[in-house]
Amino acid sequence: MGNKERIFLASPHMSDEGYEQGYIKEAFDTNWIAPLGENVNNFEKEICEVTGAKDAAALVSGTSAIHLALKLLEVKKSDIVFCQSLTFSASANPIIYENATPVFIDSDRDTWNMSPKALETAFEKYKEKGIKPKAVIVVHLYGICAKIDEIAEICKKYDTPIVEDAAESLGSIYKGRMTGTFGDYGILSFNGNKIITSSGGGMLLVNTSDSKEKAARARFLSTQARENKRYYYHKEVGYNYRMSNIVAGIGRGQLKVLDKRVEKKREIYFHYKEAFKDISDIEMMPINDEDTRCNCWLSTILIDENSKVKPLDVILKLEENNIEARHVWNPMHKQPFFEKYDYIDNGGVGEYIFNNGVCLPSDTKMTKEDMERVSNIIKTLWD
Ligand SMILES: *Cc1c(COP(=O)(O)O)cnc(C)c1O
Hints:
Structural class: alpha/beta
Number of strands: 15
Active site: 194 (proton acceptor)
Keywords: Aminotransferase, Pyridoxal phosphate, Transferase
Distance between the termini: 19 Å
Strand content: 5-15%
Shape: globular
Number of domains: 2
Strand order of the largest sheet: 1-9-8-5-4-2-3-14
Bound molecules: pyridoxal-5'-phosphate
Number of helices: 12
GO molecular function: pyridoxal phosphate binding; transaminase activity
Protein name: DegT/DnrJ/EryC1/StrS aminotransferase family protein
CATH class of the largest domain: Alpha Beta
CATH topology of the largest domain: Aspartate Aminotransferase, domain 2
Organism: Anaerofustis stercorihominis DSM 17244
Helix content: 25-40%
């Protein structure tokens, strides 16, 4: 059994049509092998068309997009930034790049994402100290939509901009609108494990009323903050964050199959849901299908804390069978580097999800047989 072909959590999946190679070939044919060119410009345009964002800047990563969002919001030394605790460290690292101070916010049991209640508590706590945070970073983990309208309302009340980390949720729709378009800034990632990949890359979505200027400023900062003069002239520090024209070509091709990928990811989720329906210890991640469409980037389950089967048992059992599975993100306030920062608790939801969650293989190249292979192995743990 162990020598069967490996099943991955989520691996790159190029289009059957070869769209990506078409765009790359154009770049080669015209010698636009540079961090600028038609693919970069068009990728930004096409992302705006697909998501409904007002403007976008193509960058080297999702992390650099969060960093520039914080730069555009003028986050500076000692400023406070509220950030969802249950997430990948990339959501929080850019706060540290600017020497600002994160305050971590616990999640909500219904969405696994930022708890509006804990967010309000955080605003009140800091208001008492006379401190207004510079930004709130909210994440749509695994493609599950956060309660973004409630969060937006609270942020509006406290006059604080939102950076929406949609790195995992491209294609997820909340009440008719794509995630990444609710915050002043949204960010996407095209890393190798994401729902579509450009081998590595990211996008800053700009949704502000002055989106043209802000997107232009993001492009300026991403190209070393070089002033428009005949000679090299720099009034501020810049970054080498601009996406390459080759990478953008891959991204453009991948964007054409986004809907197909979402469909397949959801098929995988519903396969697991059906397969585990008689195992009362297993709870599927909440996808709130009434008013949202989850892209189901990773199908994730919670195992009842009193179950004889633990998340690690599932991971090891699958590993024995050459199948990849993983723990859920470990909350930031539990990380040695970040534990010194303030944390607003909502009953330990993030820790509960980390302790009891498992991310199951959600690779879009999986066949029906692969899905059955995975779910049957997991089911044997409850025999
Ligand atoms: C992947 C990811 C990022 C970072 O994106 P990169 O392109 O890898 O820099 C940020 N936030 C979350 C939640 C992610 O999953």
